[in-house]
Design brief:
The chain has 85 residues and is mostly helical. The chain contains four helices and no strands. Helices cover 32% and strands 0% of the residues. It is elongated.
Length: 85
Amino acid sequence: MIATQTGLCADCWSELALPGTPACASCGRPFAHQVAEGSCCAPCLKDPPRHDGIASATLYNAASRKLVLALKHGNRIGLAPCLRS
């Protein structure tokens, strides 16, 4: 999908943080170190979410925030195809 997308320039793609492993099995938050498969992060252990897990195309950072706000409030509906799941 990344190679065939036409909605973002290379600079915008380079600013996005793509999820990877290892990550929390519940919320997808990345771990800074290796952990056992199926591990959960401290926030999820403290207050378990009411879902079976989530998937994300990007981690929420300044670049992804800018794209979401442009779609929601900036009338940039042309971004919709590359932001959908």
